[in-house]
Amino acid sequence: MSFYIAGTGSALPEKIVSNEDLTAFLDTSDEWIFTRTGIHNRRVLTHETLNDLAILSARRALEDAGVTGQEVGLILCATMRGDTVTPSLACVVAEAIGSRAPAFDVNAACVGVLYCMEIADSFIATGKADTVLIVSAEAMSKLLDWKDRSTCVLFGDGSGALVLRKGAGRLAGVLSTDPDSHVIRMPNIEGMNSPYNEHAPEPLAMHMDGGEVYKFAVNAMGRNIAEVCRLAQLAPGDIDWYLPHQANIRIIDASLRKFRIGKEKVLVNITDYGNMSATSISVLLDEYARRGTFKRGDKLLFVAFGAGLTSGAVIVEWGKD
Ligand code: ACO
Questions:
Q1: Nearest atom (ligand 1) to Cα of 151
Q2: CB 114 within 8 A of CB 137
Q3: Which residue's alpha carbon is nearest to atom 42 within ligand 1?
């Protein structure tokens, strides 16, 4: 006995930035970005903070699940970097929703929500919690070099949340890391003030070998889908809905091609939001859940890859309370 998904929520910055908008300060075009990635628009933080979005998406998920902050037994935040190093984003959310449950952040880049689901599985299966709130929140716009057209056009900001409750919905999960950490790297600038530090300061910005990430992504997504289906004793064709990480539409298509999955089963929203790292999968889930896409008993397969390099997949049956 582990969890089922009891509620979802999301919150996005107001500001919409189109590919066309980026051409005002970058040598790029809508045609280049859209044909290579599937992205038209992304949301970008302006007056909002990441804390604001995380708290709002958490409240929406709790309301959807009919759960109060006091009923939550564990709070996990998937983020690469919150507004503050401490308190963690999870502690900020805990305070806002009136919870005294254990709360901590998980940094597994774009796979963060799947890592959180598997931690929640362990807490619930061992009786440490009955209800877990997972919040993902990423301020990608603050982590990018806006002069580097090969990275800054790919990402967006946002937050998503889900409430997991004790039940029989989770069918299987797999998580892993691959050792090629150099292909996506974002240095930390903190600590450069130390009189003892002997390292040269590096500006905070994402460096990525796009071609290498592409190859890793297609390989890791395929490997994780095959493995999680094997664990759940299902064939890829038995899955009703695929919810892949939204990094690049070409990566999604290439990863799923060999399983001969009908396009209508593969959910996407990358066109509107770009890659929101850990938040992509939770916003995708919330949007389709609120549209009434999922029926009781449907099998949802979440699959993601990210910096680290991390990857994973989880299968959940909808509504198994
Ligand atoms: N606009 C116009 N031209 C551009 C842009 C841009 N925004 N960015 C790069 N170019 C140029 C390059 O300079 C290059 O020019 P050159 O041939 O004169 O040197 C040319 O376009 C081709 O670039 P490629 O890298 O070959 O383009 P490709 O088709 O491989 O697409 C992309 C690049 C979209 C980055 C692709 O490799 C990709 O999607 N990789 C995976 C990225 C990813 O998933 N990252 C997620 C990481 S998860 C995380 O970090 C949390």
A1: 35
A2: no
A3: 210
